[in-house]
Design brief:
With about 170 residues, this protein is mainly β. It has a single domain, classed as Carboxypeptidase-like, regulatory domain (Immunoglobulin-like). It is globular, with a radius of gyration of 15 Å. The N terminus is likely disordered.
């Protein structure tokens, strides 16, 4: 039996959020915030926040034992009228660890493009959702548009992979 996309996306997001121990920052500041794994959340352009192993003070990438890295350029298409914070995540395949990178944009304009930078070479699932009302910091609610690339994409060392995700209203 095939599960509906909403359920598959929610289960996928639930699994990586549980592993990651993710929490929402309600402080309202736009500065760097500590996350559980010791990395920082650095503001990027257009109201986005990117969370990975980067050191915003030096612009360098932290790696796991010098692991080769690549980028995932994500274009999110959404033609609905709902508003909220856009969240995009790269999750290693199979999901068993925190996301390699997460982008958030409090005021996204669609089509939206962002880059998940410095992810270790390998296979990834990409997930996107809009947190309507900004009341679902951990998991998307039934009211939140969401979609996932459930067939793993390959990120090669020093390469860039592009994906497109189309969000639809629930």
């Amino acid at each position: 039996m095939t599960r509906p996309l909403y359920l598959r996306s929610t289960l996928l997001l639930a699994s990586f959020m549980a592993v990651a121990g993710c929490a929402n920052d309600d402080s309202g500041d736009s500065g760097n915030d500590s996350v559980d794994d010791g990395t920082t959340s650095a503001p990027t352009t257009g109201g986005e926040t990117q969370t990975n192993g980067s050191d915003p003070s030096t612009g360098t990438e932290e790696t796991s034992a010098g692991a080769a890295q690549g980028d995932i350029e994500v274009t999110v298409i959404y033609e609905g009228q709902l508003t909220g914070t856009l969240k995009v995540a790269a999750i290693a395949y199979p999901p068993s660890a925190p996301p390699q990178d997460v982008l958030e944009d409090a005021q996204p304009a669609f089509p939206w493009t962002g880059t998940l930078e410095g992810v270790e070479a390998g296979e990834y699932l990409v997930f996107a959702s809009i947190d309507v009302g900004n009341d679902s910091p951990m998991l998307p609610g039934a009211e939140d548009p969401q979609a996932a690339i459930v067939d793993p994409i390959v990120v090669e060392a020093d390469g860039s992979t592009s994906v497109e995700i189309t969000l639809t209203d629930p």
